[in-house]
Amino acid sequence: MIAGTVLFAAATYLVMLAGFYWARWRRLHIGIMVGVMLFDLSMPFYLYLNKDWHRRLIKEGELTSYLLWTHFLLLLTLYMLYILQIQAGRRLLRGEGDRAEHRAQGKAILVVRAFVIATGALLVEPPAH
Fold first, then answer.
1. Whole-prediction pTM value?
2. How far apart are CA 57 and CA 41, in angstroms?
3. Residues 1-28: what's their mean pLDDT?
4. How far is Cα 114 from Cα 127, in angstroms, rounded to an integer?
5. For residue 13, what are the contacts with CB-CB under 8 A and spacing of at least 6?
6. CB–CB of 113/6 below 8 Å?
7. Core vs surface per residue 65-76: b (16+ CB within 10 A) or e
């Protein structure tokens, strides 16, 4: 069974894909992208508040897991790409930016975000029976 957080993240990925292809409708594009970025920023807080991370990371020793650190570094990469994308988007709104750069960063975000969701899905703890 797939965790609800993974399903919701996958659904927001589809919304982000739609926003990527609807870039010509500026208000819709910006609204979708900002909404998904805020979701991605809030997800770690949600997981921290609702999961027993101390038991899993410290007691069970998952803190040294290669998969966990891969997920963490991919997440940091995604956040850095978001910062660059926001800067490029603001330049575009001022008429100073390069659309090709903004689009290339958007494609990179889609790839990295897919890997963040995939590694997050692999980290989901199976339900106790």
1. 0.89
2. 21
3. 92
4. 24
5. 113, 114, 117
6. no
7. eeebeebeebbe
The distance from CA 116 to its chain's CA centroid, rounded to whole angstroms, is 6
Q: Is 109 helix (H, G, I), strand (E, B) or coil?
A: helix
Q: Judge whether 68 and 123 are in contact, CB under 8 Å.
A: yes
SS (H, E, C) 21-66: HCCCCHHHHHHHHHHHHHHHHHHHHHHHHHCCHHHHHHHCCHHHCH
d(CA 6, CA 3): 5
pLDDT per residue over 15-64, tens digit each? 999 999 999 999 999 999 999 999 999 999 998 888 777 777 777 777 77
* CA 114 to chain centroid: 8
Q: What would the pLDDT profile of 70-124 be if each residue is shown by its tens digit?
A: 999 999 999 999 999 999 999 999 999 889 999 999 999 999 999 999 999 998 8
CB of 17 within 8 A of CB of 114? no
CB 40 within 8 A of CB 78: yes
3-state secondary structure of 59: helix
